[in-house]
Specification:
Layout (H helix, E strand, L loop, with lengths): L9 H8 L13 H21 L14 E5 L7 H6 L3 E6 L2 H14 L4 E4 L10 E7 L8 H10 L1 E12 L3 H12 L17 H9 L3 E12 L3 E5 L5 E8 L1 H5 L1
Length: 248
């Protein structure tokens, strides 16, 4: 039995597990994630090119790199990362999501390793890139969760996070708006669990990680979801090992 702090909230795992059957339906309960995914992937591509000084025209910039996606759902991010050349491992709290992820990857001809359960119980080793998108707002212990994520970043590696900001704007649009209008399943978000960039930066620093490349995801009725300097609704960031603090 693990002595690590549990990060999975059973009710959250149950909620998302119930969505597994139509996770890949772009018009289903995960439609918002399908709309969000191209924006997230654009950010990820920019960051991996910058971090590894890559060729922006390279079709497989993650070739020979190990990638861990934590809170992977049914693999909506894992599959494009695999197509970028990565050796991808996905982890999710809900066994139903992992079953759906495995089935979809097999149908797509992609070799992706999937695990269900607590990250700290899986002994997965370290990765060049760790991604964790729209997850930290759902975990029981944010500090313990970030400690686990940090322990899986290989030397010289990169972590990419995204999460809603805790602002009046996010309460209005993500919770009171999107959920009431049926754009996001009811019960998906709990505004009090959202984390501000300042709070996240402090938690990352506690793991000798430095937040960088903070960028927002904004919504416009004309252009839809897009990367933005406005971090009031949702934001992405990278984190790398802060070697100066780690040596102190």
């Amino acid at each position: 039995m693990s002595t690590r702090s549990a990060t999975i909230r059973p009710q959250e795992a149950e909620h998302f597990g119930q969505l597994a059957k139509d996770w890949w339906d772009p018009k289903g309960s995960s439609a918002m994630l399908h709309r969000l995914n191209p924006v997230r992937l654009g950010y990820i591509r920019d960051q991996i090119d910058e971090h590894w000084s890559g060729n922006t025209e390279e079709r497989m910039p993650l070739a020979n790199k190990r990638v861990l996606d934590v809170g992977c759902g049914a693999g909506l991010l894992c599959e494009p990362l695999a197509r970028l050349g990565a050796n991808v491992t996905g982890v999710d709290a809900a066994a139903e999501n992992i079953a759906a992820a495995r089935e979809h990857a097999a149908g797509s001809g992609l070799n992706i390793t999937y695990h269900a359960g607590e990250l700290g119980d899986l002994s997965l080793g370290q990765y060049d890139l760790v991604t964790c998108l729209e997850v930290i707002e759902h975990v029981a212990d944010k500090s313990a969760f970030l400690a686990e994520l940090a322990s899986h970043i290989a030397p010289g590696g990169l972590m990419i996070l995204s999460t809603p900001n805790r602002t009046p704007q996010s309460r209005l649009l993500l919770v009171e708006g999107a959920e009431r209008l049926g754009m996001i399943p009811r019960g998906t978000h709990h505004w009090d669990d959202f984390i501000t960039p300042e709070e996240l930066a402090a938690l990352l620093l506690g793991q000798d990680l430095e937040m960088q490349n903070l960028q927002g995801i904004a919504f416009s009725p004309v252009t839809g979801l897009q990367l933005s300097d406005d971090i009031g609704l949702n934001y992405l960031c990278t984190a790398i090992h802060d070697m100066e603090n780690a040596r102190e």
